[in-house]
Amino acid sequence: MSTNATNPKGAAAEEPNVGGVRLRPTLTVGLFVLLVASAALALWVERNAATAAPGLVLAAPWIFLAFAVGFSIYRLSLVAAKRYSAFKAFFQVGVAALFFMLILPGPPKAQSIELPKDRDWKLLLQDPNPKVRALTASLARFEIRWKDPVAKEQHQNVARALVTALEDEDALVREEAHRTLVLIVGKDLGPAISPEARTAWKAAVP
Predict the structure, then answer these.
(1) What pLDDT is stored for residue 3 in this prediction?
(2) What gap in Å lies between CA 89 and CA 15, rounded to an integer?
(3) Is the domain of 83 the same as that of 155?
(4) Rounded CA gap, 93 and 101, in Å?
(5) CA neighbor of 124 nearest in space, from 108, 140, 110
(6) Packing angle of the helix pair 171-185, 156-165 (nearest 10 deg)
(7) Are both 25 and 102 inside the same structural domain?
(8) What is d(CA 89, CA 72) in angstroms, rounded to the nearest whole number?
(9) Rounded distance, CA 90 to CA 80, Å?
(10) How many CA atoms within 13 Å lie on the side-chain side of 96?
(11) Phi-psi domain of 20 (left: phi exceeds 0; alpha: psi -120 through 50; beta: other)
(12) Which residue of 19, 139, 141, 176 lies most exposed, with the fewest beta carbons within 10 A?
């Protein structure tokens, strides 16, 4: 009878290991349970992002990634030791990577603000939300045909509201209003931070 058949230490020595940790079958169950639990947490957070704690929303995908990396190392180590199918291992790693990409948080909701189609430009430039004011000042530059004399005259009140927006408390609102006013007037009379420039803008848009 061989030494390995009678000696538990010899059998244990044949088990693959990573960093001195033997990759025993029981490890598979533990890693798989943690992977599934972290995936369930990530899905729950994604569906309840509005009510979940902000820290948890940010951390959930990375918690899943940590367990996915551990599970992937385990599977690939078994493949290297010729204890597991390479096709199955790479398929599982690919699925985990795809899932991680799907649960990554998207762009902030503030970037997807939609203004009403029948918008009152002047009213929106006075909206309490600075992001709405900035977006309105930006859209006015593209959606109003300022080079058309008729449109320019019709939106004279919007131009005045843009001049007022040069004194907005939000820097982005001031910047977008300034860029739109340059298009309206046809030249740059100075930055919004300059009192002299603001006076010049008021004179140019009576």
Answers:
(1) 42
(2) 18
(3) no
(4) 13
(5) 140
(6) 140
(7) yes
(8) 8
(9) 12
(10) 25
(11) left
(12) 19
